[in-house]
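From: lab user (bench 3)
To: helpdesk
Subject: output format question, protein + zinc ion

Hello, I'm new to running complex predictions and I'm not sure whether the block I got back is the full result or only part of it. Here's what I submitted:
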Amino acid sequence: MRKLTRRTHSRALAAVASVAAVILLAPASPGIANPQDDKASIDERVEELQREHEGLSEDLARVVAELEEAEDRMPDAEDAVTAAADELSEAQRKDDELAARLTSAENAEKALQTEIDDGTDQIEESEQAVVGVARRAYQNSGVTSDLAMLLQMADSDNGLDGLTRVDSAVRSQQRTITRLGEQRAANMSSQDRLDAIADEISDLKDEAAEVVLEKEAAESAAREAKDSLDSLIEQKDSAAQTIEDNQAATAEELRKQKEEQERLADEIRQWQEDNGDGNRVLPGDGFLKNPAPGYPVTSQYGWRTHPISGTRRMHTGTDFGVPCGDPVYASADGVVVSSGVAGGYGNRVVLSHGKSNGASIATTYNHNTRNVVRAGQTVKEGDTVAMAGTTGSSTGCHLHFEVMVDGSYVDPMDWIS
Ligand SMILES: [Zn+2]
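Helpdesk reply: Thanks, we reran it on our side. This is the complete output you should expect:
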């Protein structure tokens, strides 16, 4: 009994340890991510989206980042749900199998018990039979002991007949005694088997208790995986809905910005026609100085798909990560075409630099905190034209720098030495 208790105890410990192992492994399993990592990666993506799409609000950038994240994590979360369901059905199968083995062991126990009970009855009958032989002999002879009874039987009548009767009585008694011995041995062996089955039943119950713990852990893992997937689906659906809700308004805003850009480009083209580009000629194929030397390029010129409107949109300049208030420099000698507020561009300075290979060259400096030049003023390359900022359609301090060739936007990096 003590041995059994200790074994049960160590099994229970092993079961607890294996459940603990499942819990420890859980964070590394697919579909279950660390919320802090998610937060950091979403914050990073929000900044990236805002750098890539000037004027995109933080709220909308976050919605886009959350949608992307949910879509990224969905396959792993789906796999985790499948894996958890598999583990659960495996635990269920083990549970069913143990229950079947337990039932069959219990049936065997009942059958053996019946066998032992029958055996005991037979032993009692044999014992009665032995007693009966003795009693009958005693009654026939009137002597008190078996030996005396047998001697008396041998002496009575003629000797041969008496001996035959003794022989027959002894044989019969011997058979009865032999059978009794066999029955007792059979019953003892049945009792041994019964003890073995009782041990087996006790082991099966211990195992079943472990499997119940496994099954509970699997059930809770399956529930967690399902919850995790559900919350991803909810995150995805809600983000997609927000994007849809903002799609029309964003597309309209982008359309207006594009119109404004074209209008401003026309104004510059017109100014250059009217003013003869200031009659300057740039060296070579167009040689401009970096307007924000030492600052990183945070967003390149070029086409990109807007994450809210879903439409293709041209980023008409190069963004430099200049802190608000830091100076922005003229890329070349020139004349100030305009200096003022220009809608989404915020505070904007436009310079005309004359011709390069027959084409009129202009540069623009946008989102400034303030402009430090006036329209009509002549500037030298490297003069401060503005202090960088985040006015207009902008969500962080930076310089949006544009180069225009004959009134069309080109990639500024092709022009900066
Ligand atoms: Zn820009």
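A quick orientation on your result: The CA atoms of residues 126 and 178 lie 10 Å apart. Let us know if anything else is unclear.
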